[in-house]
């Protein structure tokens, strides 16, 4: 079988640790080009992964290389532009989260995918974790009765410790990132809870703020470093979501789902990625996988899923439309934080 020609736009840490190695490991992929506006970053990735073509202009790369597929892993403000241009040049696109910075951009990306006839997939990798997939099966089985509530958290010490342009990383600058911890980490957990619960959030109340992170000059960063949100689903499930860049020392990437007949605890134990705690006091332990962290990278499955969708001509489950639904919740949380009101989410 002829290999798919894949190009990567954006050569930061996520490309170095996930996208490039996973592309090289896929037998159906030929990684033909990498691009970054910082040419030195692109050259470093090309050298490490033995990629022949290196660019600092993605339009030129798309025009000259004509890849079958592209990964967009740029700073957030370029997600829509790079995605739309790649689609218009005939490439299927895997776009990093957050999908885009406005609802209008998200819709434009979806429209470009439709017009081009090419797939658009958003890289919400937590859907591929084994414990998350198992938890969804348990919820759907009805074994624990209906879901009543949840709490989900994603917090670590901040991107300045691992970003390719540390310490004054683009993640801290509003013109490049637009969002802070809420768009970087909270978006993961919103998508995960939509996946696990199988329904949409319809109301949001949130505090999204900057508490601690500073630029090298000592001034507070101009994007959020902490967010605490209360979310409500169509059926009335309520829960809390926390996203933070100010958890020193260790990462918390855990979720607890409270049901009528027990609780599901995910990635809160160092050995057991899922624990079911039944109402009668009994427990069931599942040693399924480990949560990926910036320090400990394992195969996420995102690239493999993306490539498989293309090869089998199967639309991706995490489509642009799915990405927009997740982003609607993100936007609602920011609106709630700004207005001090509960925000209704309109689909």
TrEMBL record:
InterPro entries reported in the protein's UniProt record: Gfo/Idh/MocA-like_OxRdtase_N, Gfo/Idh/MocA_Oxidoreductases, GFO_IDH_MocA-like_dom, Glc-Fru_OxRdtase_bac, NAD(P)-bd_dom_sf
Protein name as catalogued: Gfo/Idh/MocA family oxidoreductase
Xref: PANTHER family: BILIVERDIN REDUCTASE A
Domain of life from the UniProt record: Bacteria
Residue ranges of domain Gfo/Idh/MocA-like oxidoreductase N-terminal in the record: 5-124
Boundaries of every GFO/IDH/MocA-like oxidoreductase domain copy: 133-264
Species annotation: Anaerocellum danielii
